[in-house]
Specification:
This protein has five helices and six strands. By secondary structure, the protein is α+β, with helices and mostly antiparallel strands. The strands form two sheets. The protein has a four-stranded mixed sheet. Strand 2 and strand 3 form a beta hairpin.
Length: about 160
């Protein structure tokens, strides 16, 4: 049985997602990912954020368990701006088609002695919500699972 290299699997998956409305973007590293998130958050909410406001939003999202974090993504963040309040939405759960869907691949993140390269990442409003680790046919699925577990420990 012939096998496909992972690069071909990636290409095919990205093409399929692109044909279904996902925007294909190139993000090289975590800094690009961070910049894209800010840009998409501003676009989705039709607002320009100062660096300080964005930092407050990031601090809000960073804290808590996975359950708490997922709840935060469904809620709106109350951003106080010079006496007024702006509600920042992370994901539109009612009108889901108004979200910004993106796909990228091979984002690199250096953590200590490890260099992690994520195969395919799906982003919603700039948030990297799905990370897909591809393995060519014949590889043990446990290898992909162990890789994801290692990524989780690092992040």
């Amino acid at each position: 049985m012939a096998h496909q290299p992972e690069a071909v699997l990636e290409k095919n998956l990205i093409e399929r997602l692109s044909s279904n409305g996902y925007s294909r973007i190139i993000l090289k590293d975590i800094n690009d990912l961070e910049n894209n998130f800010k840009k998409q958050l501003e676009k989705h909410n039709k607002v320009n954020l100062t660096d300080d406001e964005y930092k407050r939003i990031r601090n809000h999202l960073d804290g808590g368990s996975q359950f708490v974090k997922s709840k935060k993504l469904r809620d709106k963040y109350e951003l106080n701006r010079n006496g007024s309040v702006v509600y920042i939405e992370f994901i539109d759960t009612v009108n889901w088609c108004k979200n910004i869907f993106q796909v990228t691949n091979q984002i690199t993140n250096r953590e200590g002695r490890y260099i992690n390269r994520y195969d395919v990442t799906i982003l919603i409003n700039g948030l990297p919500l799905v990370q897909i680790e591809l393995k060519r046919r014949g590889m043990e699925i446990k290898e992909a699972f162990n890789q994801i577990v290692r990524y989780k420990k690092i992040l």
